[in-house]
Protein backbone atom coordinates (compact mmCIF):
# COMPACT_ATOMS: atom_id res chain seq x y z
CA UNK A 1 0.00 0.00 0.00
CA UNK A 2 2.84 2.36 0.87
CA UNK A 3 4.52 1.61 -2.47
CA UNK A 4 1.38 2.58 -4.38
CA UNK A 5 0.99 5.75 -2.33
CA UNK A 6 4.60 6.72 -3.06
CA UNK A 7 4.11 6.00 -6.75
CA UNK A 8 0.96 8.16 -6.78
CA UNK A 9 2.78 11.03 -5.06
CA UNK A 10 5.66 10.63 -7.49
CA UNK A 11 3.67 10.54 -10.74
CA UNK A 12 0.55 12.43 -9.65
CA UNK A 13 1.88 15.98 -10.13
CA UNK A 14 3.30 15.07 -13.54
CA UNK A 15 -0.04 13.60 -14.61
CA UNK A 16 -1.89 16.72 -13.43
CA UNK A 17 0.57 18.89 -15.36
CA UNK A 18 0.10 16.76 -18.47
CA UNK A 19 -3.71 17.03 -18.27
CA UNK A 20 -3.77 20.79 -17.66
CA UNK A 21 -1.10 21.58 -20.25
CA UNK A 22 -2.72 19.23 -22.75
CA UNK A 23 -6.08 20.93 -22.24
CA UNK A 24 -4.57 24.37 -22.84
CA UNK A 25 -2.72 23.25 -25.94
CA UNK A 26 -5.82 21.36 -27.11
CA UNK A 27 -7.95 24.51 -26.87
CA UNK A 28 -5.52 26.57 -28.94
CA UNK A 29 -5.32 23.88 -31.62
CA UNK A 30 -9.10 23.58 -31.77
CA UNK A 31 -9.56 27.36 -32.06
CA UNK A 32 -6.91 27.60 -34.79
CA UNK A 33 -8.49 24.75 -36.76
CA UNK A 34 -11.94 26.34 -36.42
CA UNK A 35 -10.65 29.69 -37.69
CA UNK A 36 -9.18 28.03 -40.77
CA UNK A 37 -12.18 26.17 -42.11
CA UNK A 38 -12.28 23.06 -39.89
CA UNK A 39 -15.51 23.89 -38.10
CA UNK A 40 -17.72 21.81 -35.84
CA UNK A 41 -16.51 18.38 -34.82
CA UNK A 42 -13.58 18.57 -37.24
CA UNK A 43 -11.85 21.23 -35.13
CA UNK A 44 -12.05 18.87 -32.15
CA UNK A 45 -10.80 15.97 -34.28
CA UNK A 46 -7.76 17.96 -35.43
CA UNK A 47 -6.86 18.84 -31.83
CA UNK A 48 -7.27 15.25 -30.66
CA UNK A 49 -5.16 13.92 -33.55
CA UNK A 50 -2.24 16.25 -32.86
CA UNK A 51 -2.13 15.77 -29.08
CA UNK A 52 -2.61 12.00 -29.21
CA UNK A 53 0.03 11.74 -31.93
CA UNK A 54 2.54 13.33 -29.54
CA UNK A 55 1.62 10.88 -26.78
CA UNK A 56 1.75 7.91 -29.15
CA UNK A 57 5.14 8.94 -30.56
CA UNK A 58 6.56 9.33 -27.05
CA UNK A 59 5.39 5.81 -26.15
CA UNK A 60 6.96 4.45 -29.33
CA UNK A 61 10.27 6.11 -28.41
CA UNK A 62 10.11 4.35 -25.06
CA UNK A 63 9.34 1.02 -26.76
CA UNK A 64 12.27 1.52 -29.14
CA UNK A 65 14.61 2.02 -26.17
CA UNK A 66 13.40 -1.19 -24.56
CA UNK A 67 13.92 -3.17 -27.78
CA UNK A 68 17.30 -1.51 -28.55
CA UNK A 69 16.07 -0.01 -31.80
CA UNK A 70 17.67 3.33 -30.88
CA UNK A 71 21.04 1.87 -31.92
CA UNK A 72 20.05 2.37 -35.55
CA UNK A 73 20.39 6.11 -35.12
CA UNK A 74 19.04 9.04 -33.09
CA UNK A 75 16.57 10.11 -35.81
CA UNK A 76 13.81 7.52 -35.88
CA UNK A 77 10.26 7.57 -37.17
CA UNK A 78 8.75 8.17 -33.68
CA UNK A 79 11.18 11.08 -33.18
CA UNK A 80 10.10 12.64 -36.48
CA UNK A 81 6.42 12.16 -35.63
CA UNK A 82 6.89 13.66 -32.17
CA UNK A 83 8.78 16.62 -33.63
CA UNK A 84 6.04 17.23 -36.19
CA UNK A 85 3.30 17.02 -33.55
CA UNK A 86 5.12 19.45 -31.28
CA UNK A 87 5.70 21.86 -34.17
CA UNK A 88 1.99 21.82 -35.10
CA UNK A 89 0.92 22.27 -31.48
CA UNK A 90 3.36 25.13 -30.94
CA UNK A 91 2.31 26.82 -34.19
CA UNK A 92 -1.35 26.66 -33.16
CA UNK A 93 -0.53 28.10 -29.75
CA UNK A 94 1.44 30.98 -31.30
CA UNK A 95 -1.33 31.62 -33.81
CA UNK A 96 -3.70 32.39 -30.93
CA UNK A 97 -1.24 34.70 -29.16
CA UNK A 98 -1.19 38.46 -29.03
CA UNK A 99 1.62 39.74 -31.29
CA UNK A 100 3.87 40.60 -28.36
CA UNK A 101 6.81 38.86 -26.70
CA UNK A 102 4.82 37.96 -23.60
CA UNK A 103 1.86 37.01 -25.74
CA UNK A 104 4.00 34.46 -27.60
CA UNK A 105 5.63 33.20 -24.40
CA UNK A 106 2.37 32.66 -22.52
CA UNK A 107 0.69 31.10 -25.55
CA UNK A 108 3.57 28.69 -26.04
CA UNK A 109 3.60 27.67 -22.36
CA UNK A 110 0.88 24.94 -22.62
CA UNK A 111 2.63 23.21 -25.52
CA UNK A 112 6.01 23.39 -23.77
CA UNK A 113 4.57 22.13 -20.47
CA UNK A 114 2.76 19.31 -22.28
CA UNK A 115 6.03 18.26 -23.92
CA UNK A 116 7.88 18.38 -20.59
CA UNK A 117 5.20 16.29 -18.88
CA UNK A 118 5.27 13.67 -21.65
CA UNK A 119 9.07 13.48 -21.55
CA UNK A 120 9.02 13.03 -17.76
CA UNK A 121 6.44 10.26 -17.94
CA UNK A 122 8.41 8.60 -20.74
CA UNK A 123 11.64 8.84 -18.74
CA UNK A 124 10.07 7.33 -15.62
CA UNK A 125 8.50 4.50 -17.58
CA UNK A 126 11.83 3.72 -19.26
CA UNK A 127 13.73 3.82 -15.93
CA UNK A 128 11.52 2.24 -13.27
CA UNK A 129 12.57 2.22 -9.65
CA UNK A 130 14.59 -0.91 -8.86
CA UNK A 131 12.63 -1.79 -5.70
CA UNK A 132 10.40 -4.22 -7.53
CA UNK A 133 13.32 -5.91 -9.26
CA UNK A 134 15.88 -6.10 -6.47
CA UNK A 135 14.26 -8.95 -4.44
CA UNK A 136 14.08 -11.11 -7.55
CA UNK A 137 17.55 -10.30 -8.84
CA UNK A 138 19.56 -11.05 -5.68
CA UNK A 139 18.97 -14.84 -5.60
CA UNK A 140 19.21 -15.04 -9.39
CA UNK A 141 22.61 -13.35 -9.36
CA UNK A 142 23.89 -15.85 -6.76
CA UNK A 143 22.61 -18.76 -8.81
CA UNK A 144 24.07 -17.35 -12.04
CA UNK A 145 27.55 -16.98 -10.53
CA UNK A 146 27.67 -20.71 -9.75
CA UNK A 147 26.41 -21.91 -13.14
CA UNK A 148 27.61 -21.67 -16.76
CA UNK A 149 26.77 -18.69 -18.93
CA UNK A 150 23.92 -20.50 -20.62
CA UNK A 151 22.12 -20.74 -17.26
CA UNK A 152 21.96 -16.97 -16.65
CA UNK A 153 18.55 -15.93 -15.36
CA UNK A 154 16.49 -14.22 -18.10
CA UNK A 155 15.43 -11.42 -15.71
CA UNK A 156 19.08 -10.70 -14.89
CA UNK A 157 20.01 -10.63 -18.57
CA UNK A 158 17.10 -8.28 -19.36
CA UNK A 159 18.09 -5.98 -16.52
CA UNK A 160 21.73 -5.95 -17.67
CA UNK A 161 20.57 -5.17 -21.22
CA UNK A 162 18.58 -2.17 -19.99
CA UNK A 163 21.57 -0.93 -18.01
CA UNK A 164 23.81 -1.33 -21.08
CA UNK A 165 21.31 0.45 -23.35
CA UNK A 166 20.90 3.34 -20.90
CA UNK A 167 24.70 3.68 -20.60
CA UNK A 168 25.16 3.76 -24.38
CA UNK A 169 22.32 6.27 -24.82
CA UNK A 170 23.81 8.53 -22.13
CA UNK A 171 27.52 8.27 -22.98
CA UNK A 172 27.41 7.40 -26.68
CA UNK A 173 29.54 4.27 -26.31
CA UNK A 174 28.97 0.67 -25.19
CA UNK A 175 29.27 -0.17 -21.52
CA UNK A 176 32.42 -1.99 -20.37
CA UNK A 177 32.64 -5.15 -18.26
CA UNK A 178 33.89 -3.19 -15.27
CA UNK A 179 31.15 -0.56 -15.55
CA UNK A 180 28.47 -3.24 -15.77
CA UNK A 181 29.97 -5.08 -12.79
CA UNK A 182 30.03 -1.89 -10.70
CA UNK A 183 26.45 -0.99 -11.63
CA UNK A 184 25.00 -4.42 -10.89
CA UNK A 185 27.24 -5.22 -7.93
CA UNK A 186 28.18 -8.67 -9.25
CA UNK A 187 31.43 -10.56 -9.66
CA UNK A 188 33.82 -9.97 -12.54
CA UNK A 189 33.08 -13.42 -13.95
CA UNK A 190 29.33 -12.84 -13.91
CA UNK A 191 29.76 -9.42 -15.53
CA UNK A 192 31.91 -11.02 -18.25
CA UNK A 193 29.30 -13.72 -18.83
CA UNK A 194 26.55 -11.12 -19.04
CA UNK A 195 28.50 -9.03 -21.54
CA UNK A 196 29.16 -12.13 -23.65
CA UNK A 197 25.44 -12.94 -23.60
CA UNK A 198 24.48 -9.37 -24.57
CA UNK A 199 26.94 -9.32 -27.47
CA UNK A 200 25.70 -12.61 -28.88
CA UNK A 201 21.99 -11.87 -28.39
From TrEMBL:
Q: Where are the transmembrane segments?
A: 12-29, 41-58, 79-95, 101-121
Q: Which Pfam families does the protein's record reference?
A: DUF2637
* Entries under InterPro entries matching the protein: DUF2637
Instruction: Could you list this entry's UniProt keywords, alphabetically sorted.
Output: Membrane, Transmembrane, Transmembrane helix
Q: Where is this region: Disordered?
A: 127-148
What is the protein name given in its UniProt record?
Answer: DUF2637 domain-containing protein
Give the residues annotated as coiled coil: none
Please tell me the species this chain comes from.
Nonomuraea wenchangensis
